Amino acid sequence: MARPWERQPDETPQAFTAFCVYRDLGRARSIDRAYQAACAQDGGQRRARSSWWRWSRKHGWVARSRAYDAHLQEVELRAREDEARRQGRDWVRERNQQLERTFQLTNRLVDRAEQMLSFPLAAMEKGEDGSTTIKPAGWKLRDAVALLDAANRLGDMVVAAFGGDQEDQVSDRDGARDRLAALLARLTKDEPGPDQGAGE
User: Fold this and answer.
1) Domain co-membership, 73 together with 103
2) Half-sphere exposure (CA, 13 Å, Cβ side) for 176?
3) Residue where a domain stops, chosen among 83, 111, 132
4) Rounded to whole angstroms, how far apart are CA atoms 55 and 13?
5) Do 109 and 29 have their domain in common?
6) Is the CB of residue 141 less than 8 Å from the CB of residue 192?
7) pLDDT of residue 83
8) Start-end of H helices in 119-175
9) Could you give the 3-state DSSP secondary structure of residue 189?
10) Is 198 a member of any domain?
11) Those residues with Cβ within 8 angstroms of residue 101's Cβ, 6 or more apart along the chain or in another chain
12) Residue 150 falls within a domain, yes or no?
């Protein structure tokens, strides 16, 4: 069954062509304007022929055009909804990519702090006699603390982004935050007192 804005079974090609001109003028349409648009190449005429008025009454141009307007509104609404969904998917994908980068950075910071705590960063020098001298590179305990603090802040940011109800799931990812907690506990236990100069 033909939709209202399509050609109807009892509608001649000439009548349907005239209707299409009228239909496509939009909400400011009128039969005279449609006729003028159709006759534009001939210089146009101010008033439509009686046949146009007759076709309009017989084939319900007004009601069919209103149905066409409603159809276009629905199409536009669906297009906007589709675009909103696409933008939403893009935003989620970009957010997840950013969170993934943040996870990786957290892991790298924890790895770096573990290296510093397991063996001080050092410079190796070879003497003329072939001996090797290892000199501490001068990192300080507060450097490891700063790295772990940064990693902790990044981890908290990721947890907040996912939502508190998913904190356990986020905390277990790659064991980064568990390692972080262990290192922080180690620093708290091993940190020298004010009279100890270790690492400072």
Assistant:
1) no
2) 27
3) 83
4) 11
5) no
6) yes
7) 92
8) 141-162, 167-171
9) helix
10) no
11) none
12) yes
**What is the C-alpha to C-alpha distance for residues 45 and 35, in angstroms, rounded to an integer?**
8
Q: Which domain holds residue 17?
A: 13-83
In this prediction, the residues of the chain whose per-residue pLDDT falls under 50 are: 165-172, 191-200
Measured over the CA atoms of residue 30, residue 62, residue 28 and residue 40, the dihedral's sign is: negative
Domain for residue 108, yes or no?
A: yes
Amino acid at 5: W
Burial 114-136 (b: 16+ CB within 10 A, else e): bebbeeeeeeeeeeeeeeeeeee
Give the pLDDT score at 169: 45
Instruction: Give the DSSP per-residue string, 46-95.
Output: SS--HHHHHHHHHHTHHHHHHHHHHHHHHHHHHHHHHHHHHHHHHHHHHH
133 and 173, same domain (yes or no): yes
What is the C-alpha separation between 26 and 153, in angstroms, rounded? 57
Q: Which two tokens stand for residue 128?
A: 């003329």
Beta bridge partners of 123: 135
Contact 141, 187 (CB under 8 A): yes
What DSSP designation does 120 have? Answer: -
Q: Kindly state the helix (H) or strand (E) to which residue 21 belongs, with its residue range.
A: helix 13-23
Q: Is the distance from CB of 110 to CB of 176 less than 8 angstroms? A: yes
**Per-residue model confidence as pLDDT tens digits over 114-150:** 776 666 556 667 777 777 776 655 666 667 677 777 7
Does residue 51 lie in a domain region? yes
